[in-house]
């Protein structure tokens, strides 16, 4: 079962498409990045993009060179996966969401519409990210050279859930099975199986046993 590529889609040379892959209208796969001279992203040569069996690259979605996308993944309409991103099997990336460079996303994770996953983030398996979540990686917000060695996105451990519109500050760790309430601003690590709410986020109670994976 060969890959299905819409006539309006662009698949750059060298791209590896698995069996049953669908690249829909106006999608772009294997795009080379254009970096600002001040970009913190690394500039080594990029490997070809790899798309796993049965994955759908939906209308207007873009997957950059150097990224690997697993099997049975849905990359929603107008979503974007930047360079050197690794996405596991059975992941859903919602409409208009963006995954920045050098990020890893584990299997069975769901990232909903309009979410922003910053560069150098780690999301483990079975993570849930609600719509319009924002993650950050630079406490200096573009100022000083010291920021280059300290840039780090959040780490979201297995089974953690991030509520709609939450903001995760640079370098925070969301523990396994933790729950971040909608609109929370997380400025420090969240312990495993803990519910946090508010701005700044504070511990509320533990996640009930019946709601754990």
Can I get a quick summary?
With 213 residues, the protein is mainly beta.
Percent strand equals 25-35%
Mean pLDDT: 95
Query: Per the principal axes of the C-alpha atoms, what is the gross shape?
Result: globular
Number of strands: 28
Kindly, what is the distance between the CA atoms of the first and last residues, rounded to a whole number of angstroms? Answer: 35 Å
What is the strand and helix layout of this fold?
Blueprint: E1 4-5, E2 10-11, E3 16-17, E4 22-23, E5 28-31, E6 50-51, E7 56-57, E8 62-64, E9 68-69, E10 74-75, E11 80-81, E12 86-87, E13 92-93, E14 98-99, E15 104-105, E16 110-111, E17 116-117, E18 122-123, E19 128-129, E20 134-135, H1 147-150, E21 155-156, E22 161-162, E23 167-168, E24 173-174, E25 179-180, E26 185-186, E27 194-197, E28 202-206
Parallel strand pairs: 1-4, 2-5, 3-6, 4-7, 5-8, 6-9, 7-10, 8-11, 9-12, 10-13, 11-14, 12-15, 13-16, 14-17, 15-18, 16-19, 18-21, 19-22, 20-23, 21-24, 22-25, 23-26, 25-27
Antiparallel strand pairs: 27-28
How would you characterize this protein structure?
- The structure is a single chain.
- With 213 residues, this protein is mostly beta strands.
- The protein has one helix at 147-150; strands at 4-5, 10-11, 16-17, 22-23, 28-31, 50-51, 56-57, 62-64, 68-69, 74-75, 80-81, 86-87, 92-93, 98-99, 104-105, 110-111, 116-117, 122-123, 128-129, 134-135, 155-156, 161-162, 167-168, 173-174, 179-180, 185-186, 194-197, 202-206.
- The strands form four sheets. The protein has an eleven-stranded mixed beta sheet with strand order 1-4-7-10-13-16-19-22-25-27-28, with no helix packed on it.
């Amino acid at each position: 079962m060969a890959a299905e590529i819409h006539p309006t889609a662009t698949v750059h040379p060298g791209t590896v498409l698995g069996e049953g892959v669908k690249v829909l209208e106006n999608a772009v796969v294997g795009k080379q990045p254009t970096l600002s001279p001040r970009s913190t992203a690394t500039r080594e040569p990029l490997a070809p993009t790899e798309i796993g069996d049965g994955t759908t690259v939906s209308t207007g979605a873009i997957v950059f060179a150097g990224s690997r996308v697993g099997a049975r993944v849905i990359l929603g309409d107008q979503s974007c996966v930047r360079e050197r991103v690794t996405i596991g099997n059975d992941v859903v990336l919602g409409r208009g969401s963006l995954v920045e460079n050098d990020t890893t996303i584990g299997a069975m994770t769901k990232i909903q519409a309009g979410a922003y996953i910053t560069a150098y983030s780690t999301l483990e398996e079975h993570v849930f990210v609600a719509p319009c979540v924002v993650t950050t990686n630079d406490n200096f917000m573009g100022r000083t050279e010291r920021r280059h060695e300290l840039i780090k996105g959040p780490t979201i451990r297995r089974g953690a859930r991030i509520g709609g519109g939450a903001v995760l500050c640079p370098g925070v760790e969301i523990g396994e099975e933790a729950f971040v309430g909608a609109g929370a601003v997380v400025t420090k690590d969240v312990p495993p199986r803990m519910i946090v709410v508010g701005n700044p986020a504070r511990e509320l109670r533990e996640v009930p046993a019946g709601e754990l994976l």
